[in-house]
Design goal:
- The structure holds two protein chains of two kinds.
- Chain A has 23 helices and 19 strands.
- Chain A is α/β, with parallel strands linked by helices.
- Chain A has an eight-stranded mixed β-barrel, surrounded by six helices. Chain A has a five-stranded parallel beta sheet with strand order 2-1-3-4-5, with helices on both faces. Chain A has a five-stranded mixed beta sheet with strand order 7-8-6-9-10, sandwiched between helices.
- The longest helix of chain A is centred in the N-terminal third of the chain and has 25 residues.
- By secondary structure, chain B is an all-alpha fold.
- Helices cover about 75% and strands about 0% of the residues of chain B.
- In chain B, helix 4 packs antiparallel against helix 7, helix 5 runs antiparallel to helix 6 and helix 6 packs antiparallel against helix 7.
- The longest helix of chain B has 18 residues.
- Classes of the chains: A alpha/beta, B mainly alpha.
C-alpha cells in the first residue's frame, strides 16, 4: 500500500475552507507540493464545490467561523447527506469547546490556530487520507457488491470477533442454496438471477436484524448465515418461498437449507459451515426435503471417510490393500474350465478390519482417488498374469476395472501400454471392464476411448450389464467384446419365469452382438445348470470360488493344469 | 523596507512565522504586506463604538487567527486578549486595547514603507 501511494504519482485533492485569505495562502503554500489544493471562502462555496462530481476530494481542511455558512453548518449539511463518510474533515480551531461539537458532526482531527508547524500539518493530512483510503478499500472488499451481504473472508473474521465476546451462546451455521441456479440464469437471464439473489439476501438480512447474526454470499447462489440457535428454520424457508414466488415469474425457485445446529466452538467457523454445507448438499435434487440438519451420524460417516481418504496411500504401501482374484469358468464344455479371472480390491484396515468395497470405492470415485487404486490393481494384475504364465505355462487373462474417471484420463492408453511393456504382456491378456454408467456420463468420450483401446488390441467387457439405464441404446454404438450380466439377473432367475426370460433376453442380445456372456453371482448348482442349458458361456461366482488371494488362486490353476 | 531584522526588532516571532511560510522570505513578506490592507481594525473599532460585542468578537477572532499565523506578536497579543474578553462578553476598557493595536499596527505599516 505504502509503495502504491508513493509511486503512483496521484495527487490527492484537498479542499481548504477559510474566510481569511492569508490563512488560505499559508495552507496552500504548505500543501501545494504534495496536494492539488482548492480553496473556498466559506461553507457555502465549499459545499457547492463538492457537488461538482468530476472532482474528488481526499480531505477537507475547515475553518469554523466564517460568514454565510460556517464550519458547523457545513458539517451538518455533509452529515445529513452521509457525505462525511467518504471525505474526512479536519477542523482548524484553537478552541477546545468547538472540538467536541466538531467531533459530533464528524470531524476526524484538528489543526490548531495559529497553525502548527508545516511538517505537523502535512503529517496529519497524510495520515488521515491514508486511514480513509484504507477504510474505503476495506469497505469495498468487505461487502458483496451485488447483495450487500459480507464477503466470505470478512464474514469469517467478524464471526471470530463476535465469538470473542460470545463464547457461551449457542449458535447455528446455516447454508442457503438455490437449486439449479445456473439454469435460472441461463433460461431467464442474469438480471432475473440477480434479482432473486438480492431478494434472498434482503430476507436473510431482515431476519438477522437486531440480532448478533451476520450473513454472507460465498459464491454465486450460496449464502452463509451465522445466528443464534433456533429450533427450526421453517419460518424463514416459508418466507423465502412466498417472497420468491411473488418476485419471480419462474414457476419454482427452490431453496435448500443446510443447518449445523449448536456448533462445536472448539472447531473453526469455516468447519461449521463445511458441515452445514454437507447437510445442504445431502438433499441436492431431493424434492421431498428442503431443510437438512447436520447429524452426528453424518459427522461420524464423514470422519470415517476422511480417515479412509487419509489412509489410502499408507494402505497401499503397507499392503493393507490387496488384490484378490475371482475365477471365471467356461461352462459349455463337459467339465467347467478355468478361463480367466477378475481382479478385485480388498482392504484389510488395521483399525476397521475388512472394509467393504462399497464403503470406499464410491468415495474414491467421488474424489478422484479411485485412479490411484485402479492403477495399483492394474499393476498387480499384470504382475500375476506374468508370474502365472511363467510358473504354469498358461495365460489366465485377468479383467480389471476401468473407472469412469479413468475414461477422461488422456494418458489412459499410455498407462496400459507401459504396464504391458513392463510385464511383457500382450493386450489380449488383460481385459478391461467398464460400467454402463460411464456411458450415461458421456457416451461420446467413452465410445472414443473404447475404440482406441480395442484398436490397440485390448478387449472390453461391459460390466454390470442390465443394472443401469440406456443399455440397449448403448449396445448399438459402443463396441464391446464381452457382456457381463449383472448378478441380480442370476439371483432371481430361478424364482420366476419372468426373471428367467430376462436372462434369456440378455443371452439373445449377446448372441446378436456376437459376444460371450459372463454370468456373475452364480452361487448354486441349479443356477449353473440353468445357465448352461440356455447357452451362457462363462460363469463367475461363489459356486466355483469367492475372490481369493493370489496364493489360493494358484491352487485353482494347479488343479486345472493337472 | 521590510526586513527580517526589522521584524525581529519589532517583536515578531520571525522564525515561527517564516517556518509557517515554508521559510520563504518573499512569501512571508508578501503576506505581511497583504494584511496591511485588512480592515479588521476599523471593523473592530466600529463595533466597539456601537457596543456590538458580537460583531467585535467576530472581527477580532478572524484577525487574531491571521496575526497568529504570521507571528506578528506585538499586534497578535492585544488582539488575542481582546478576543477572549469579547468571547465572554466582558465589560472592559476595549478602547485601551484598540489604542495599543493601532500603535503597533502603525509601526508595522511604517516598517513596510506604507
Amino acid at each position: 500500500m505504502e509503495k502504491f501511494r508513493e509511486s503512483n504519482g496521484l495527487r490527492r485533492r484537498v479542499l481548504v475552507v477559510d474566510d481569511e485569505m492569508i490563512n488560505r495562502e499559508i495552507l496552500g503554500n504548505i500543501l501545494n507540493e504534495h496536494y492539488e489544493v482548492t480553496f473556498a471562502e466559506n461553507g457555502r462555496q465549499a459545499y457547492d464545490l463538492l457537488q461538482e462530481r468530476d472532482k474528488k476530494y481526499s480531505l477537507i481542511l475547515l475553518d469554523l467561523f466564517m460568514p454565510e455558512m460556517d464550519g458547523f453548518e457545513f458539517m451538518e449539511k455533509l452529515k445529513s447527506k452521509g457525505e462525511t463518510n467518504s471525505i474526512p474533515v479536519i477542523v482548524m480551531t484553537s478552541e477546545k469547546t468547538a472540538e467536541v461539537k466538531s467531533i459530533k458532526l464528524g470531524a476526524v482531527d484538528f489543526i490548531t490556530k495559529p497553525y502548527d508547524m508545516p511538517e505537523v500539518i502535512l503529517a496529519r493530512c497524510e495520515r488521515i487520507i491514508e486511514l480513509y483510503e484504507d477504510k474505503s478499500i476495506i469497505r469495498s472488499a468487505e461487502k458483496d457488491g451485488l447483495t450487500g451481504l459480507y464477503s466470505k473472508d470478512f464474514f469469517f473474521e467478524y464471526i471470530r470477533q463476535i465469538e470473542n465476546y460470545n463464547q457461551s451462546d449457542s449458535v447455528d451455521a446455516v447454508v442457503f442454496n438455490v437449486e439449479r441456479f445456473k439454469l435460472i440464469n441461463e433460461l431467464h437471464g442474469r438480471v432475473e438471477g440477480d434479482n432473486i439473489l438480492c431478494r434472498i439476501a434482503d430476507i436473510i438480512s431482515q431476519d438477522l436484524e437486531g440480532s448478533l447474526g451476520i450473513g454472507c454470499r460465498v459464491e454465486a447462489d450460496t449464502f452463509y448465515v451465522y445466528c443464534y440457535h433456533k429450533d427450526n428454520y421453517d419460518d424463514i424457508l416459508e418466507l423465502l418461498r412466498q417472497e420468491l414466488s411473488e418476485l419471480s415469474q419462474i414457476p419454482k425457485v427452490r431453496l435448500r437449507i443446510g443447518v449445523y445446529s449448536n456448533v462445536d466452538k472448539e472447531i473453526r467457523p469455516e468447519n461449521w459451515f463445511d458441515r452445514a454445507k454437507a447437510a445442504c448438499d445431502r438433499i441436492r435434487g431431493d424434492y421431498t426435503q428442503q431443510i437438512s440438519y447436520y447429524s452426528s451420524e453424518q459427522h461420524e460417516r464423514e470422519l470415517y471417510q476422511e480417515r479412509l481418504i487419509n489412509d489410502i496411500v499408507k494402505a497401499i504401501a503397507d499392503k493393507d490393500l490387496r488384490v484378490f482374484f475371482q475365477p471365471k469358468y467356461d461352462i459349455q464344455s463337459d467339465k467347467p474350465v478355468l478361463k480367466s479371472a477378475e481382479a478385485l480390491i480388498r482392504w484389510q484396515h488395521p483399525e476397521f478390519g475388512l472394509i467393504s468395497p462399497g464403503d470406499f470405492i464410491p468415495l474414491f470415485e467421488s474424489n478422484g482417488l479411485i485412479q490411484r487404486l485402479d492403477n495399483f490393481v492394474w499393476e498387480e494384475a499384470a504382475f500375476r498374469i506374468k508370474t502365472w504364465r511363467e510358473k504354469y505355462g498358461v495365460t489366465i487373462p485377468i479383467s480389471v476395472n476401468v473407472s469412469r474417471i479413468d475414461i477422461y484420463d488422456p494418458e489412459l492408453e499410455e498407462k496400459f501400454i507401459k504396464i504391458l511393456d513392463r510385464y511383457e504382456l500382450t493386450p489380449n491378456e488383460m481385459m478391461l471392464e467398464i460400467t454402463e454408467s460411464a456411458y450415461a456420463d458421456n457416451a461420446n468420450a467413452l465410445i472414443g476411448v473404447v475404440k482406441n483401446l480395442r484398436e490397440k488390441g485390448f478387449r472390453i467387457e461391459m460390466d454390470d450389464f442390465g443394472s443401469g439405464y440406456s443399455s440397449l441404446n448403448m449396445l448399438t454404438t459402443l463396441p464391446i467384446d464381452v457382456l457381463k450380466m449383472d448378478m441380480k439377473f442370476v439371483r432371481n432367475m430361478n424364482k420366476d419365469e419372468k426373471s428367467m426370460k430376462l436372462v434369456e433376453l440378455v443371452l439373445d442380445i449377446a448372441k446378436f452382438l456376437n459376444v460371450p456372456v459372463v454370468a456373475e453371482g452364480v452361487e448354486e448348482e441349479s443356477q449353473l445348470s440353468a445357465l448352461k442349458k440356455i447357452g451362457c458361456d462363462l460363469v463367475q461366482g461363489y459356486y466355483f470360488s469367492k475372490p481369493v488371494p493370489p496364493d489360493q488362486f494358484e491352487r485353482l490353476i494347479e488343479k486345472e493344469v493337472k | 523596507m521590510l526586513s527580517i531584522e526589522a521584524l525581529r526588532e519589532y517583536g515578531a516571532d520571525v522564525d515561527e512565522g517564516m517556518h509557517r511560510c515554508m521559510d520563504n522570505e518573499q512569501f512571508y513578506f508578501m503576506l505581511i504586506n497583504k494584511i496591511l490592507d485588512d480592515s479588521s481594525i476599523e471593523k473592530l473599532e466600529e463595533a466597539i463604538g456601537s457596543e456590538n460585542l458580537e460583531a467585535a468578537f467576530e472581527a477580532a477572532h478572524g484577525f487574531k487567527g491571521v496575526l497568529g499565523n504570521l507571528a506578528l506578536t506585538p499586534v497578535y497579543k492585544p488582539v488575542s486578549e481582546m478576543t477572549e474578553l469579547l468571547r465572554s462578553k466582558e465589560k472592559a476598557d476595549y478602547g485601551k486595547y484598540i489604542e495599543e493595536i493601532k500603535i503597533k499596527w502603525a509601526k508595522l505599516k511604517d516598517m513596510c514603507g506604507q
